[in-house]
Amino acid sequence: MAGGKETPRQKMIGMMYLVLTALLALNVSKSILDAFVNIEENIQVGNITEHQRGDTQILGVKEKLVNDEGYKSPKAAAVYDAMLDIDKLTAEKIQLIDKVKLLIFQATEEDLDPKAEDPICILGKGQVLNFADEKNPRLTKDVSDAIVPFVKPIRMNLHNVSGKDKFDEQMYVMGIDQSIEEPRKDAPGFAVWPAMKDFRKKLPEILVKVSNTLAKMDSLDKSFSFKDPNIIKYKDINHLGKLLDKAVKSIDAQDPSLAYEIKKIYQGLTKNEKIPDPNEETEPLHWIGMTFDHAPAVAAIAALSGLQSEVLTARADALTYLAGLVGGGSYSFNAVEGRAFAPPSATAGATVKMDVMMVAYDTEKQPIVEPDQGKVIGEPRNGKATVEFTVPSSGEMILTGKVAIKDKNGVPKYANYETNVMVVTKAGSIALPEVSVFYTDWANKVTYSAAGVVSSKIACSGCSRQARSKQWTDSDGQRFKGDFLYVSAGTRSVTVSLSGTDDQGQNINFARIKYPVKKFPKPEIKTETLSKDRGGFLSVGLGEAFNFKGISYTVLGGEINGESFSGQRITPAKLTRARKGKTVGALLRVKRSDNGRVYNIMGAVKIN
Q: pTM (2 decimals)?
């Protein structure tokens, strides 16, 4: 115990082991060991509960596979298959951790025979244990009460462990007999670390896969993907949350509930791989070393059961989420109301359609509403919240946001909402939210609205191309819908016409507006000064008179004071001929972000 990379403190512990062994006979030490035994017992009881919680969800979905009329539900079948995939993955990890436990007991020379007078392993009916295999002790048969075999950990009674205080043997099994900073990766116990990371990676992938399958069944324009961020280092829980927010950003935009579930599961399975030594005597310790260093055998077993608890909790959470996709009973309601949803506008004498449905809600659990536009006023009541927003002067406004309701466990389930508001005016109108003229080489954004018609559209005389029904967001966060009009070089003016069709099919012309056309402005050099001694970066952009959104430029290279360069940075070597205090000319090649076109521009920079 005094070799390898042991610290002086650890070497002292090793040398005093015989003394400590004697001290363990004292009541205080026995109480500590018994406390670990009791902790492990509580963890096992919790694991049984989590296992049952997950099995309940599987059985609930299995009942939905075929109804009383013999109809097989494709959705329930897809979810059930995903549940079985989760259990196969879970069983793989639970078995591995059980194997490490048994290896520790083998190393401490415990009697693992379930038929012993005081057995450590307590098997259920239909379970068979191979406890004599020195390399791979395991359950070889499990038909006790499992839907998928081997998901539930082996039941153990640590009160019957004779060598509760042994720790040398378990440290060897875990691979920290020589170094607690860098455990031996070939040690059988170290395998639990990559196994937990693998479980954390694959469980969200199963949820994403079945979500894509269900979206296709519903003909929804959704496609989910999740790339494992492989987080092994974070500052605190808030920092971890931010890292996960970034990882599930694309999912959150389509299905906040799925994003929330993946984030919760991933967070519960994440640990810092390296942990600072609390005694500041070594380099940062590996989690395995920090957890199992000089831990008594019963404490090591409790720590491994804790890992199984994390696996079973993540499994139960994932299965509960999947059950909810096909009508799982995670929500309670005690009030219902009839609701009708009519179009936001209608013309006189027109035939319209509206949706009527029954809405159920819990009067004790009000919805959580997070609008993207406007704000919630007052407190939500009777299952609804009121959102107040300002309507733009024209066009069609798209209102979006999230709404959530808590399930029986208090966990919020999020869903996106979206609705349109057509701004009604006395007549038809056309607006250019960004500018008052048209530009070549640019998507000229045009909004329009018309009252008294069931549909409206614009036409452009002089435009080269028109893209209809586009959406965009302005600098204030308001979302708009309109058309993008494109103009070819050399065009001096265009005419935009607004027309509509009423409920009788008659065409109505509302407005005809002529707009001048200008060339799209060239960028200019924004950098005013460069240091002759340090050089610097050249920044390029449009002039302050132009208010175009979503456009930037990248400097590819060029010449400055007669010296050629590439990239955005000017090195001091390129400024050797320039005099401080003087202004030098620059010829740049720049690339535009939105269409990839390359421009040559000229400018000047002062050298300091």
A: 0.59
